[in-house]
């Protein structure tokens, strides 16, 4: 397994992380190159002066040249030797440039050293996370505290180095500099530093929203009694809340959970009514015991402590990615997160197997195995039904996901597809990565051959815990109604992105989501009109189709802001069109709409190309 994953980890994380060292390495090379070039120019000047001096003998001339070869101008400028004072004075202000090259070199070496130290810290913290759960939490906290400081220093240092290079690269190689380029680099560097500092201190929202209804003990006394009985046998405290929903999973958490307008604290157990109807009571009890095993094993408490820090780290990564010039630091921090995720996956899989063994001890291994097969098959089939529905290019009169799953499950259970799905099936879960089905059954000493699995899925359920929940049918109906309505809305919007359109009905559907728009100019003749297929501007001779736009960028010229469009297929002098945003009443609204309409067109083209290839 490690031999298969190592190349992927190397390509995905390690190689991109090396970009952290790219700019400092270039800074070291450039400083050395500039210093060497300066020394060469000074030596050539001295050599020409000596060559023109006819009073100097050949032996003296050679002696002088040997001295200047042995003591280049950079050595004289950077030395405090009083014997070289006259040499330094003759060089004049040129020594100040050499001092800059020296400081840039030292800064670049410092950034490289900081990068190496950060790498060692990341490796040590990442490896410590494999030792144990307490080490995992502590190593991540230490790594996060140290690396966010070193990454901020990297952003500040590399930003300053980039601004310095934006002057000296052109000054050295083109013998001129560009104030606008320097200004742009300074703005980018300042913005990057601001984003990083803000991201360090800003904590993202950690709300965990669950679409479900709370099942109080009065609404399901038998189910609550069952859960308490299982907790007593496992010697752990029972949950404070039980939620019932239609998601294809069960889970337990100690996070704060938002259900509608309420926020629940403490231990919360989520049960799926859809799955409870598929499970015999003993099978459902095995699942519930597994979830209570997570409480006993401290998995939920560990997750509660670690999850906010992971969320903060994820927000920090997003800010680094959005910062543009902070991408090298982003890739480095992503490598650390990737290494930590390996330890998380390992410990989570171990926790799942441990919870299975605990559940098997109070129920049975066969009940665990049967519940895993049923839950895995149901989740896989439901995913297939929803994916097929969403992929259809026609509008649905009704999606009826629940009915499609219920009526099609028997046929699915008898197909070859179910075996392929179950071979790699894992139970869906919002917090943990689960081991494969075969490994989990082996872990509890149970075995089901393919024929047994099919028969298990086809056998009618005699008694379920869903029947003990008051108004279970009404709860399911409400939740499925809300879920299917959102699904239909998402599919409806997706069709607006897929259609070319090629019929009047498709055109009407696209225009429902992408209607014709008009953006008024501050003066007459500068209006912009846009629909799903084209954009026109008062100063243009004809509209431009989105199909013709190769690229779109914004630029500032003569104190005005423009939207520049590169047109494909146009002549040499007609390959660009521009909209003066400064002449519009709502330039930001135009940019947002233009990006959305252009994205729709490009997504439509990709969809058509994929459909034709299929």
UniProtKB/TrEMBL annotation:
<keyword id="KW-1133">Transmembrane helix</keyword>
<keyword id="KW-1003">Cell membrane</keyword>
<dbReference type="GO" id="GO:0006508">
    <property type="term" value="P:proteolysis"/>
</dbReference>
<feature type="transmembrane region" description="Helical">
    <location>
        <begin position="181"/>
        <end position="201"/>
    </location>
</feature>
<protein>
    <recommendedName>
        <fullName>Peptidase M48 domain-containing protein</fullName>
    </recommendedName>
</protein>
<dbReference type="Pfam" id="PF01435">
    <property type="entry name" value="Peptidase_M48"/>
</dbReference>
<dbReference type="InterPro" id="IPR050083">
    <property type="entry name" value="HtpX_protease"/>
</dbReference>
<feature type="transmembrane region" description="Helical">
    <location>
        <begin position="12"/>
        <end position="30"/>
    </location>
</feature>
<keyword id="KW-0472">Membrane</keyword>
<dbReference type="InterPro" id="IPR001915">
    <property type="entry name" value="Peptidase_M48"/>
</dbReference>
<feature type="transmembrane region" description="Helical">
    <location>
        <begin position="142"/>
        <end position="169"/>
    </location>
</feature>
<keyword id="KW-0862">Zinc</keyword>
<keyword id="KW-0482">Metalloprotease</keyword>
<keyword id="KW-0479">Metal-binding</keyword>
<keyword id="KW-0645">Protease</keyword>
<dbReference type="GO" id="GO:0005886">
    <property type="term" value="C:plasma membrane"/>
</dbReference>
<keyword id="KW-0812">Transmembrane</keyword>
<dbReference type="GO" id="GO:0004222">
    <property type="term" value="F:metalloendopeptidase activity"/>
</dbReference>
<feature type="transmembrane region" description="Helical">
    <location>
        <begin position="106"/>
        <end position="130"/>
    </location>
</feature>
<feature type="domain" description="Peptidase M48">
    <location>
        <begin position="264"/>
        <end position="444"/>
    </location>
</feature>
<keyword id="KW-0378">Hydrolase</keyword>
<dbReference type="GO" id="GO:0046872">
    <property type="term" value="F:metal ion binding"/>
</dbReference>
């Amino acid at each position: 397994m490690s031999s298969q994953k190592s190349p992927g980890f190397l390509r995905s994380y390690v190689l991109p992380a090396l970009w952290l060292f790219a700019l400092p390495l270039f800074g070291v090379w450039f400083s050395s190159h500039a210093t060497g070039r300066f020394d060469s120019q000074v030596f050539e000047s001295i050599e020409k002066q000596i060559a023109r001096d006819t009073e100097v003998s050949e032996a003296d001339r050679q002696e002088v040249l040997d001295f200047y070869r042995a003591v280049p101008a950079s050595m004289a400028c950077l030395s405090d030797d009083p014997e070289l004072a006259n040499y330094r004075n003759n060089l004049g202000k040129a020594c100040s440039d050499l001092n800059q090259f020296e400081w840039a070199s030292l800064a670049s070496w410092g950034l490289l050293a900081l990068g190496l130290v950060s790498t060692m810290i990341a490796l040590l913290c990442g490896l410590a996370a494999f030792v144990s759960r307490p080490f995992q939490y502590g190593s991540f906290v230490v790594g996060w505290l140290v690396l966010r400081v070193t990454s901020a220093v990297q952003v500040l240092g590399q930003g300053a180095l980039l601004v310095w290079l934006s002057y000296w690269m052109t000054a050295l190689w083109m013998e001129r500099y560009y104030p606008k380029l320097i200004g742009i680099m300074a703005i980018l560097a300042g913005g990057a530093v601001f984003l990083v500092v803000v991201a360090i201190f800003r904590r993202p929202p950690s709300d965990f929203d669950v679409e479900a209804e709370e099942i109080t003990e009065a609404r399901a006394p038998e189910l609550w009694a069952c859960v308490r009985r299982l907790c007593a046998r496992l010697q752990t405290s029972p949950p404070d809340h039980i939620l019932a929903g239609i998601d294809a999973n069960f889970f337990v958490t100690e996070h704060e959970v938002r259900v509608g307008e309420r926020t629940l604290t403490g231990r919360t157990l989520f049960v799926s009514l859809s799955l409870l109807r598929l499970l015999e009571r003993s099978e459902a009890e095995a699942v519930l015991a597994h979830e209570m095993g997570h409480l006993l094993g401290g998995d939920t408490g560990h997750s509660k402590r670690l999850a906010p820090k992971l969320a903060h780290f994820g927000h920090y990564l997003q800010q680094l990615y959005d910062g543009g010039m902070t991408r090298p630091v982003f890739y480095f921090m992503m490598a650390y997160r990737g290494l930590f995720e390996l330890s998380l996956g390992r410990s989570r899989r171990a926790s799942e197997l441990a919870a299975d063994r605990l559940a098997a001890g109070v129920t049975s291994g066969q009940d665990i195995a049967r519940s895993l097969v049923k839950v895995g098959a149901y989740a896989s089939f439901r995913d297939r039904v929803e994916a097929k529905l969403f992929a259809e290019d026609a509008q649905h009169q009704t999606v009826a996901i629940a009915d499609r799953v219920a009526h099609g499950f028997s046929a699915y259970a008898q197909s070859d597809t179910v075996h392929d799905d179950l071979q790699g099936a894992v139970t869906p879960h919002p917090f943990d990565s689960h081991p494969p089905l075969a490994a989990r059954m082996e872990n509890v000493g149970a075995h089901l051959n393919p024929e047994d699995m099919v028969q298990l899925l086809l056998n009618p359920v005699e008694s379920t815990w869903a029947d003990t929940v008051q108004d279970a049918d009404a709860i399911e109906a409400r939740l499925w109604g809300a879920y299917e309505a959102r699904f239909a809305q998402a599919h409806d919007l997706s069709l607006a992105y897929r259609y070319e359109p090629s019929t009047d009905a498709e055109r009407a559907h696209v225009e429902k989501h992408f209607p014709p728009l008009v953006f008024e100019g501050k003066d007459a003749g500068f209006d912009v009109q846009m629909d799903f297929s084209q954009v026109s501007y008062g100063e243009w001779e004809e509209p431009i189709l989105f199909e013709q736009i190769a690229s779109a960028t914004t630029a500032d010229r003569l104190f005005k802001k423009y939207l520049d469009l590169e047109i494909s297929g146009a002549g040499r002098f007609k390959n660009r069109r521009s909209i003066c945003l400064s002449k519009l009443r709502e330039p930001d609204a135009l940019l947002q709409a233009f990006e959305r309409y252009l994205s729709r067109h490009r997504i439509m083209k990709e969809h058509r190309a994929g459909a034709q290839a299929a």
